[in-house]
Amino acid sequence: MSIKLISFDFWGTLYHNKPSLVEKQNTVIQQFLKRASFDDALLDKVSKAISFAWTKWDVLWKEEYRTLAVHDWLAIVLEYLEVELSEDFFTTCCSELQALLFTGNTKEIPGVRPILESLYTHYKLSIISDTGIESGDYMRRLIRKDKLDYFDYAVFSNEFGRSKPHSSLFNALLTYFQLEPEEVVHIGDLRRTDIEGAKSVGMHTIRFSGCKNDENSMYNEADFVIDDYALLPGILEKLTR
Fold first, then answer.
1. Average pLDDT of the chain?
2. Angle at the Cα of 203 from the Cα atoms of 154 and 15, rounded to 5 degrees
3. What percent of the chain has pLDDT over 90?
4. pLDDT tens figures, 130-172
5. From CA 58, how far away is CA 64, in angstroms rounded?
6. Are strands 204-208 and 224-226 parallel, antiparallel or unpaired?
7. Which of 132, 166, 218, 230 holds its CA 20 to 30 A away from the CA of 192?
8. Is residue 127 domain-shared with residue 84, that is, in the same domain?
9. 135 and 234: one domain?
10. Using an 8 Å Cβ cutoff, are 232 and 206 in contact?
11. What is the crossing angle of helices 22-35 and 46-63, to 10°?
12. Helix %, strand %, coil % for the chain, to 5?
């Protein structure tokens, strides 16, 4: 059966943050606390509050298959600090935290643009991605800003209400395109989420190790592993024989 659809993860597969945005998140939150007239002693605790909130995010992601939206994440930070922001400050802070996605920290994975340009003429393309505190809407904006919008459809965890590896995200893709699992290849960087999730519904799997090499042997390995997108056409040719 021929391959008709190629699905990509977002983080670690299409884009990466280098360095991470944690320092910039710290700066944004500190600025809002200053504007709200909180003292410097509180500002020194923001880093610990952010670390605590990300730990909470990680537990929910792994144990409940869901990702916290920015307003839930920020609420945890403020609860840790035992402070409140006005509704206007809170809403604006959420927007500015998500807009950090457009800073120079967020970069395309090398080789992504030419491979998407090539694949777009032969296959349907899609995204299945867990979101951080940046929503799927902001991730779509980044793709449009970078003129990387080659995708026919996207499933983002904050919109879907579930995160990978839950099979419902992958089945949603099959339903939308009316395809059999054997007609789809999913490419992602994480064994637990991308590879386990795609394999659970019968899709072909490719692990991209060019950004982060996930060697976690607790989870199944992909059908193929590549560290360079120049290798992808050869694998797709094998799968269509």
1. 96
2. 40
3. 93
4. 999 999 999 999 999 999 999 999 999 999 999 999 999 999 9
5. 10
6. parallel
7. 230
8. no
9. yes
10. yes
11. 120
12. 50, 15, 35
Taking each continuous run of H as one helix and of E as one strand, the counts in the chain are 11, 8
The answer for 202, left when phi > 0, alpha when psi is -120 to 50, beta otherwise, is: left
Tell me phi and psi for residue 185, to 5 degrees.
Answer: -115, 130
Amino acid at position 174, single letter: L
pLDDT in tens, 5-37: 999 999 999 999 988 899 999 999 999 999 999
Token readout for 169 is: 């995200």
Q: Are 3 and 125 in contact (CB under 8 A)?
A: no
pLDDT surpassing 80 at residue 1: no
Last residue of a domain, one of 102, 134, 164: 102
Beta strands in the chain (DSSP E): 5-8, 15-17, 106-108, 124-129, 153-156, 184-188, 204-208, 224-226
Which among 42, 75, 102 is the end of a domain?
A: 102
Task: Tally the domains of the chain.
Answer: 2
How many C-beta neighbours within 10 Å does residue 117 have? 11
Q: Name 143's Cβ contacts closer than 8 Å, sequence gap at least 6.
A: 149, 151
Note whether 182 and 147 are same-domain residues: yes
Q: What is the extent of the structural domain holding 54?
A: 22-102
- Residue at token pair 């600090």: 81
pLDDT tens digits for range 85-111: 999 999 999 999 999 999 989 999 999
**Neighbour tally for 173: CB within 10 Å:** 24
